[in-house]
Amino acid sequence: MTRKITDEQPRVRFDCGKCPAFCCSVYPRVAVTPRDIKRLAQHFGVTPDEATKRYTKMSGTSRILRRKGDPIFADVCRFLDPVTRGCTVYHARPAVCREYPGSTRCTYYDLMKFERRIQDNPNAIPLIQISFQDAPQQSETGASEDED
Ligand code: SF4
Ligand code: SF4
Fold it and tell me: What's the pTM?
């Protein structure tokens, strides 16, 4: 049977207003395009060159937003308000932030709700850190090539 989705059903199952902003913390590289920089420059009333210097830095071949320390996470995007946990440049935020999480669910919000339930603590904040590496190559037998 095909499940029918009606307008009454919630389409978005997360609430950024009730989240400490995992997405502004766990990704150390928030990439910005020239268009993003132009938007930030207009927001702050500075030139794109000045905005580039003040708010961004290079990481490898990518230009990314600068970071700062945070009372909850190790570090966060420089534009995150440490108290309200909201974006201080919301209307001028980069495209990647506008598109995130690109789904009706947010994994980090789900994880926080899950842990609050499991820990029986409505205020618990799981301190999440992620890093990425490629999975080991699998041989034709299915065994990992770097296994003995
Ligand atoms: S982690 Fe998810 S719920 Fe939290 S602010 Fe980001 S998008 Fe919103
Ligand atoms: S620009 Fe705003 S939404 Fe994007 S990472 Fe920084 S604080 Fe978060």
Answer: 0.86
**Does 114 map to a domain?**
no
- 127 three-state secondary structure: coil
The arithmetic mean of pLDDT across residues 106-134, rounded, is: 96
Is residue 148 a part of any domain in this protein?
Answer: no
Give DSSP secondary structure letters for 71-122. SSSSEEETTB-TTT-SBTTGGG--HHHHHTT-SS--HHHHHHHHHHHHTT-T
Ligand located closest to 30 CA:
2
Best probe residue, ligand 2, of 32, 77, 83 (max atoms within 8 Å of C-beta): 77
Whether residue 82 is contained in a domain is answered as yes
Q: Which domain covers residue 55, as residue numbers?
A: 27-102
Ligand nearest to the CA of 56: 2
pLDDT in tens, 15-73: 999 999 999 999 999 999 999 999 999 999 999 999 999 999 999 999 999 999 999 99
Spatial distance between the Cα atoms of 66 and 84, rounded to a whole number of angstroms? 19
Any domain includes 1: no
Q: Mean pLDDT of all residues in the chain?
A: 91
Helix (H, G, I), strand (E, B) or coil at 56: strand
Q: How many domains does the chain have?
A: 1
